[in-house]
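EI: anyone free to look at a 80-residue chain?
SC: sure, send it
EI:
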Amino acid sequence: MTMIELRELLGWCTLINIGLLVFSTLAVLGLKNSIIKLHAKLFGVDEQAMPLLYMQYVAAFKLLVIVFNLVPYIALRIMS
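SC: here you go
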């Protein structure tokens, strides 16, 4: 795999993961009440704790996308 192919792969991975991040964030914010009830029943978690868990999920996902997709992509763009 050449540097150009790797850069393109990381670019597409970054784009797809940011799209998933935006979609999941909008779903959590837009469908908050129904998702909270569903997940509270599924996982046996108190409904009051769910918003904090959602924000922790979004923050962790965002951090992982930045560290493993965006930063390597930017580094390869700088190198080429």
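EI: The chain has one domain: 11-79.
SC: 👍
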